[in-house]
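Model it.
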Amino acid sequence: MTHPFTGAGVALITPFNEDKSVDYSALERLVEDQISGGIDYLVVLGTTAETPALSEAEKKEIVRFVIEKNAGRLKIVVGMGGNNTTGLVQTIQNTDFNGVDAILSVTPYYNKPTQEGLFQHFKMVVEACPVQIILYNVPGRTGVNMDADTTLRIANLSDKVVAIKEASGDLVQFAKIINNAPAHFKLISGDDGLTLPSVVIGSIGVISVIANALPNKLSELTHASISGNITLASQLHLQIGEMLKLIFREGNPGGVKALMKMMGKVKNQLRLPLVQVSESTYNMIDSELKKI
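Modeled.
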């Protein structure tokens, strides 16, 4: 049976107007662009969405809006994580999950729990959450790496824990998880640049940033990788490789928003503490876009 989150997921940006309000017209166009571009599922309120800079009311409205505009066409994953376990559990218990297929739950950040602390945190999340769960390990942002043994321990708690978005960049860690995971649990790359190599060793795809701007190319790359068309996947990987480096040069989502501005998709607006990329990076992205 095909895993429900096989293929290319997109971590949606939050488009803003010049006054920093949410640009819902651009968000609607973005959803349609992803669907027509061959993306397999939508991730709302992830890192790329600038979620820490959104109010609770805005978060609820963005989720509601995306569910409405998606109209059941793609699966929807909602980012729900935190470093206050009790508070996160209460949020989950008070959430209406109608139209939501899974949550993406990041490891607790800033307070740097031990591996046992990570396990106990996710044990409570699993007990509280009524929908499927994708774990999210991104040590470059959280300050703690969830190691393979802890990931596997959580995966074995329940078949609701269906995957991990691995953004450690450590292919040895990837391989240990893939080799020892229960049948219901799969690994998803959290790095666009590792889509092809991760699929080769057994991942089921990627949750992507660049897909916001280039859904067709990212979708084609992911699907070619999964189907075993390594020649095509390699060509696409090399084609967007330099752009991937550039859009992350000054952090995410500054780079991809600059790229999308050039393509006429959104306004180049972010909320503090994030700012637009520098002129030099903007010009490099522009130059690379012309090549692509």
